[in-house]
Amino acid sequence: MTLEKDLILILDFGSQYTQLIARRIRELGIYSLVKAYDSNIKEIENLKPKGIILSGGPNSVNIENTLKPSKKIFALEIPILGICYGMQLLAKEFGGKVIKSNKKEFGDSKFMIKKKSKLFKNIEINLNHNVWMSHADKVSNLPKNFSKIGESTNSKIAAFENKNKNIFGIQFHPEVTHTLLGKKILKNFIEICECKKSWTAKKITKEMIKKIKLDVADDKVILALSGGVDSSVVAAILNKAIGKQLSCIFIDTGLLRKNEVSEVRKITSSLKINLTIVDASRKFLLALRGVSDPEKKRKIIGKCFIDTFNSEAKKIKNVKYLGQGTIYPDVIESSSKNSKSDVIKSHHNVGGLPKKMKLKLVEPIRDLFKDEVRKIGLDLGLPRALINRHPFPGPGLAVRILGEINHEKVRILQEVDYIFIEELRKNNLYNKTDQALVVLIPSKSVGVMGDKRQYGYVVALRAVNTTDFMTATASHIRHEILNNISTRIINEVDGVARVVYDITSKPPGTIEWE
Questions:
Q1: Do domains 7-192 and 201-387 have the same CATH topology?
Q2: pTM for this structure?
Q3: Angle at 372 between CA 313 and CA 33, to 5 degrees
Q4: 243 phi-psi bin (left φ>0, alpha ψ -120 to 50, beta other)
Q5: What does the alpha-carbon distance between residue 105 and residue 307 come to, in Å, rounded to a whole number?
Q6: CATH of region 201-387
């Protein structure tokens, strides 16, 4: 991205909430980037951040070889905010004392502002605020030239500042929704950094199109279109930038949702995107015959996809670029495993394509979170129904059919899935749930149809609510609605004898069954 923009840099010390910090900053209209805690000072200087946030993390600042950033960040003379571990790190770095807390503080806690501060502007002082804590250590002695600005249920020093250096520390997590004053604190920090709002959908879209035109010039790009949000948005961006130089290949694996092919054809046609549809369903189903292990299924599907895509791509001459729907969480996830490099995660079923095809990658949405991708998609004119579509696994219905896969099971699952989603939409529940799916269970159950006993499959409906897909709770669907869905499925889909609703939360369960 070449957009002229103010940046808040987040140094990651391993917190499960690091991505959330970046998202919250961006929601406030300011660009944010996550980099490894030990990033080189030259790299940091080149980014020209207006402020730095030190994230939380699972480590203690009192252990040998604890995680530390370059000391030179403190000489940059820009505002710094330490969160949780980041606060303890600042305390230790400037000569304060951090001790093991006699009582750990995890989850909801009360925080009270004890002194006026720029960080707490427009937030009431001497009042209990609900915050989210996650720490076993605490600051017991302030560093020189630092003053206490807040305390919590279990920490006498739960927030501090160095006014002259614009360095702040807070023991709680402002990025999580449980911390009700969190957004105000991050907004105040942005103001302290003197950032100007520049991260908006319109500006990002305009800049991406401009960059692709410059980078790709007159060359050709191919894209594996899946019909999901990410690849569809990439197709729309590339089409806007380079038009007929883009060729999209859509592979019908035979494991897609009902009417998926016609929907993709309709959308691409309305946007005048050059599309080739390959019906490889027989090839995929033959390769999966007799296979029950979910990991083997994934590998077979991945290989079939790559082989099919390669074969089709060879028909298009003089291609130099491969478009890919990598998004920012994939980049963060990959780089967190190896703090020295941003390795692109092998994502969904296009992993391995760049290596095999020796093409340059073009990844327009690589810097974006999912909610930002959706905003860009709407800005580009993609239908809202597509943009708000629930996540769908790369291997498709293969991981929602437990055990061996065959044509009959796929047909049953497609029909049941269609009814479930249709009923959720009809009852205004689709956009109130974050993911809805159906699982076909391999065992059969007895049922009575037309006074006759017969055996049919059991299908499990699942709908969940989540903010980050790391945790999830089962959606509350009224019994009357579930009853109506069940009746429709049993009456309309041959081969189903029983319908159940999965109410398992995550954890301990996962959202998908395989």
A1: yes
A2: 0.80
A3: 95
A4: left
A5: 52
A6: 3.40.50.620
- Distance between CA atoms of 12 and 35, rounded to whole angstroms? 6
Q: Which CATH architecture has domain 406-501?
A: 2-Layer Sandwich (3.30)
Q: Which residues are bridge partners to 225 per DSSP?
A: 250
Catalytic residue among 93, 105, 135, 173: 173
Residue with tokens 């020209």: 48
Question: Active-site residue 84, yes or no?
Answer: yes
Among this protein's residues, is 195 annotated catalytic? Answer: no
- Answer yes or no: CATH 2.30.280.20 is held by domain 7-192: no
Domain boundaries, the chain: 7-192, 201-387, 406-501
CA atoms of 492 and 418, how far apart (whole Å):
11
Work out the end-to-end distance of the chain between its first and last CA atoms, rounded to an integer number of angstroms: 36
Distance of alpha carbon 85 from alpha carbon 490, whole angstroms? 54
HEC profile for 434-495? Answer: CEEEEEEEEEEEEEEECCEEEEEEEEEEEEEECCCCCCEEECCCCHHHHHHHHHHHHHHCCC
Strand 51-54 to strand 246-252: parallel, antiparallel, or no bridges (unpaired)? Answer: unpaired
Distance CA 331, CA 313 (A): 26
Report strand pairing: 452-465 vs 435-449: antiparallel
Q: Which of 105, 175, 415, 423 is catalytic?
A: 175
Closest-CA residue to 258 (of 420, 125, 496, 380): 420
> What is the rounded CA–CA span in Å between residue 142 and residue 139?
7
Is the previous residue joined to 174 through a cis bond, with omega within 30 degrees of 0? no
Catalytic residue among 84, 193, 195, 304: 84
Q: Are 236 and 205 in contact (CB under 8 A)?
A: no
The yes-or-no answer on residue 248 being catalytic is: no
CA dist 306 and 315 (Å) reads 15
Q: Encoding tokens for residue 302?
A: 């991945």
Asked if 129 contacts 123 with a C-beta cutoff of 8 angstroms, the reply is: yes
pLDDT tens for the chain, 514 residues long, are 455 689 999 999 988 889 889 999 999 999 999 999 999 999 999 999 999 999 998 889 898 889 999 999 999 999 999 999 999 999 999 999 999 876 666 778 899 999 999 999 999 998 899 998 876 788 999 999 999 999 998 889 999 999 999 999 999 999 988 898 999 999 999 999 999 998 999 999 999 999 999 999 999 999 999 888 999 999 999 999 999 999 999 999 999 999 999 999 998 998 899 999 999 999 999 999 999 999 999 999 999 999 999 999 999 999 999 999 888 887 876 665 443 333 323 334 344 454 556 789 999 999 898 889 999 999 999 999 889 999 898 899 999 999 999 999 999 999 999 999 999 999 999 999 999 999 999 988 776 655 556 789 999 999 999 876 767 899 999 999 999 999 999 999 999 999 999 999 988 888 999 8
Q: Which of 75, 72, 79 is nearest to 194 (CA)?
A: 79
Q: Is the preceding omega at residue 329 within 30 degrees of 0, hence cis?
A: no
